[in-house]
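Usage

Read records sequentially. Each one opens with the input sequence:
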Amino acid sequence: MIHLTASPWTALPDALHHTGEPSAWAKMTRPDQPMHSFLESAFFDNAGAMWLSDVPYGRVFRVSPAGEWEVMHQIEGEPHAMRIAPDGRRIAVDYRHGMIELTGPAEFKTLIAGASEPFMGLSDMAYGPDGALWFTDSGRSSLSDPVGRVYRWQDGVLRLVLDCVPYSNGICVSPDNGWVYVAATRANQVWKFSTRLPEVESPMVGTYLQLSGGLGPDGLACNAHGWLAVAQAQAGRAYVYDAIGDLIAEVRLPRGIWTTSVTFHPDNPQKLIIVDAQFGGVFTCDIPNPRT
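and closes with the structure output:
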């Protein structure tokens, strides 16, 4: 295992900082603290642009390969994550509204507001190689109330997969479509289960990683090697593990501790992108391959 320090790449421009009254979400999550943004859920599109969600102020940004920021959507909502679906639609999980489709710069329509009862507050999402959409419903769950959920939406069918997670948060699928990884933030763990779900029952789930420090794991990402990257919230660092769970690297940020999101660059599976929500910064780090 090696220790690395990430390098700054870009940051939310001052002109895009929210300067008005904090939103209800901002007041709930960071009482009595100013919040100009809270960036989550980085991913890259096919053109090499990076997208980010700004939860408290309903914004979705696109960042060009040159690091230029543009507001693509701004809605009356709290989008925790957005992805471009295989059919090209822009699908988001919104803490207030549920699963939505962003249909215009300020427009959206609700696709799913809940299952047998309303969602508690959606958190993150990931498409698997087979097109299945996996997403988390954390609400305010924790170790004292471990009721965070994981869902799968595939072929128009919504399935509740888990309902026992202490704050189900980041989620990703292995590149071979074999495994789902879920951040159990308030337990400071990453859980793992098979994508091949039993007919009716819940899948067998194990603790894949036991972390320490900070708040717990937030965003997760896999690359083509099968590596798993973990953003460690309120710790200013990220971890990268190989396909069997051995730690490859610990990456520290030079500034900020609200590490919320990680993703790998599409043109280089060893280039890790790390997002800090404290200052709205985006950092990069090249992760050496231990096998070369």
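Summary fields computed downstream for this record:
- Residues 122 and 137 are 4 Å apart (CA to CA).
- The chain has one helix and 25 strands.
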